[in-house]
Amino acid sequence: MRENTMTDSSAATGGSESSGRSDVSAASAKEIGVIDRSAAILTALQDSPMTAAEVCRRLGYSKSTTYRLLADLRTHRFIVRDSNGLLRLGPFPGRRSIATTNSVLEHLRTLTSESVQLWVRVGEDRVCVRNVEADHELRVSRSVGTVLPLVDGGSAALALCGPGNPQEFYATKQARVKGTASASVAFTVGGAILALCVSYPLTREPDNVAGAYRAVLGQAAVELKGLLEDSEEFAVLRDIARLALGARRSE
Hints:
Helices cover 50% and strands 20% of the residues. The protein is α+β, with helices and mostly antiparallel strands. The protein folds into 2 domains: 2-81; 98-249, GAF domain (Beta-Lactamase, 2-Layer Sandwich), CATH 3.30.450.40. Strands 5-4-3-8-7-6 form a 6-stranded antiparallel beta sheet. A two-stranded antiparallel ribbon has the order 1-2. A hairpin with a 5-residue loop joins strand 1 (79-81) and strand 2 (87-89). Helix 2 crosses helix 3 (63-75) and helix 4 packs antiparallel against helix 6 (209-228). The chain is globular, with a radius of gyration of 26 Å.
C-alpha cells in the first residue's frame, strides 16, 4: 500500500509540473504574439504616420487589440500622437531619435507634396543636415552635407538670419536657382538656429504661398524643437554640420 501511495503521489506531482509548464508556454506564446504585433505597428508607423483606424485597416487587427497595443506603446513613448491626431514614432529611451526627426519631415512632405530640408546655421554659412525629397519627377532639393553661404540668399538663409521664431515666415522666388522657390521658418535649439524649408519648382507654386505653408511649417518647427532639445539627435546634426564644413575647407 505504501508503495502504491508513493507511486500515486509521484504521478500526481508529475501532472502538476506538466500543467505548470503548459501554463508557462501559453503565457510565453501570448507575450511573443504581443511583441510581434507591436513590432508590426512600429514598422507601419515608420513608413508614415497614421490614425488608429488606419493602423487597424492596414494590419487587420481587431479594434480592441489595436487600441490596447497603441495605448501601451504610447504609455512607454514608443509612439506619440501629434496635434493632427496622427500616430508617429516617439522618443523611447535608447531608440535613436533620427527616425523621429525624419518622421516629422516626412509628414511635412506628405502635407506639401514637396521636398523638405532642415538647415543649421554655422557662422556665415548654412548646412543641410536632413533632407526628404518629393516624389515628383521634377523636384527641388539639396543633399545632406550641402554648405551654402548665407549671402547667397534663399528663404532658409533669410530665416536663419532672423530671430529664430517659428512664427516668422519667409518665402523667396528664384533667389538662388532660376525656376525654383522655397518657404521657410526658423527655430532655436541650444543656442543654435535651424531652418525648416519646403522647396519646389515655380510651376507648382501655390496661389497663396503663406496660406499653404506658414501653418504647417510653424507647427513642424515647434515639434522639431521639442524633439531636439537635450537629445542625442541634436548632437548628431551638429556633427553633420561640422564634418560638412571641414570637408569643404579641405577641398
